[in-house]
From TrEMBL:
<dbReference type="InterPro" id="IPR039569">
    <property type="entry name" value="FAS1-like_DH_region"/>
</dbReference>
<dbReference type="InterPro" id="IPR029069">
    <property type="entry name" value="HotDog_dom_sf"/>
</dbReference>
<protein>
    <recommendedName>
        <fullName>FAS1-like dehydratase domain-containing protein</fullName>
    </recommendedName>
</protein>
<feature type="domain" description="FAS1-like dehydratase">
    <location>
        <begin position="34"/>
        <end position="118"/>
    </location>
</feature>
<dbReference type="Pfam" id="PF13452">
    <property type="entry name" value="FAS1_DH_region"/>
</dbReference>
Length: 130
């Protein structure tokens, strides 16, 4: 596995009922047909599970979620069909107080109708066994 490798590709639909349920869960004050900023976590949930159990060379019992960011490039409305491509954007190791830490940065490009609509970056951190 190396930086730049495509880790997975998948599609999903931002079903209006799921969007409304998510809005209630996050207490979104205004009602809108535009997706809430963090709704993509719903469409990416099964990928994240596979990421730490099958795709990355990590022991999932030693993994924490480091950070998450979304760069929206266009508004996406409930009902949209989205395509996702996840790429390993960076890999590094650092010495920590309690041993070595490995960092995996994953970037998911979400597209709709052939154009990118969001860049979703997350960092997975593993504490390497001694």
């Amino acid at each position: 596995m190396k930086v730049g490798d495509v880790l997975d590709r998948w599609e999903g639909v931002a079903e209006p009922g799921k969007v409304a349920e998510f809005e209630r869960a996050v207490h979104r004050p205004e009602k809108s047909d535009v997706l809430p900023p963090t709704f993509l976590v719903v469409l990416g949930a099964s990928f994240v599970e596979r990421l730490v159990t099958e795709i990355l060379p990590v022991d999932r019992t030693r993994v924490v979620h480091g950070e998450q960011s979304y760069q929206w490039l266009a508004e996406v409305r409930a009902g949209a069909r989205l395509q996702a491509e996840a790429v390993l954007a960076d890999m590094s190791e650092k010495a920590g107080r309690n041993g070595t830490l490995r960092f995996f940065t994953v970037e998911i490009t979400w597209s709709s109708e052939g154009r990118p609509v969001c860049r979703d970056r997350s960092v997975v951190i593993e504490r390497v066994p001694e």
